[in-house]
Design brief:
zinc ion binding, 8 strands, eight-stranded mixed β-sheet, metal-binding, MethylthioRu-1-P_deHdtase_MtnB, about 20% strand, alpha+beta, EC 4.2.1.109, lyase, binds zinc ion, globular
């Protein structure tokens, strides 16, 4: 893939973002959270562009060439490559929150099972877990951390509208699940986004264990 950059974006900046995405993708793939070419990852490049994984590659074996530039409407910039099918969900976050720098979307088994189990309620309410404090803005295990579960669809504008509706209702949003599909989370840099993803994976696994133990 050849990536031509606009004059305003230094090659070193794009490469730094691409390398950070490749590294995160490899580590998340090693954890088994990106099976069968699923999942997609992005980082903001500037106020009008982001770097994102191309569609359909194994996430444990990405190179710099598998990361492409898009504008915040989701169009490819300076390349013929095709961005991830779910690009609109990434650009929505960058458009809404200028401070957000990274978006991670994975399909772990825990995320997938939890999304199905709570799809009927449309939300997972986390409370009483110390690790909720890993989510930016949460300072106590007593707080309630709500993770919405949206119905899955191949039509991205529907999901974009559900995210908008949740936010327009004035509810905090740090992550969401899609039914039978996976999780989206984001942060002010890659480290914060990774922390959010790891904490949420752990919290969802704890909730599933509790459900199982209480039922037995
Ligand atoms: Zn997905």
């Amino acid at each position: 893939m050849t990536q031509t950059l606009p004059a305003t974006i230094p090659a070193s900046l794009f490469e730094q973002r691409a390398d950070a995405i490749v590294e995160a993708a490899r580590e998340l793939s090693d954890l088994g959270w990106t099976p069968a070419t699923s999942s997609n990852f992005s980082m903001r490049v500037d106020d009008a562009h982001a770097a994102i994984t191309v569609s359909g590659k194994h996430k444990g074996r990405l190179g710099r060439d598998d990361i492409m530039l898009i504008d915040l409407a989701g169009n490819a910039v300076g390349t013929d490559a095709r961005p991830s099918a779910e690009t609109a969900l990434h650009t929505q976050i960058y458009r809404r929150w200028p401070a957000m720098q990274a978006v991670l979307h994975t399909h772990s088994r825990t995320q997938s099972v939890a999304s199905r189990l709570y799809a009927g309620e449309g939300v997972i309410r986390l409370q009483g877990w110390e690790l909720q404090k890993a989510i930016s803005g949460y300072h106590s295990h007593d707080s309630v951390l709500e993770i919405p579960v949206f119905p899955n669809t191949q039509h991205m504008p529907e999901l974009v509208a559900r995210v908008d509706a949740w936010l327009e209702a004035g509810k905090p949003l740090h992550a969401y699940l899609i039914d039978g599909h996976g999780i989206y989370t984001w942060g002010r840099d890659m480290a914060e986004t990774r922390r959010h993803l790891e904490a949420l994976e752990f919290l969802l696994a704890c909730e599933l264990d509790l459900k199982r133990l209480r039922a037995s």
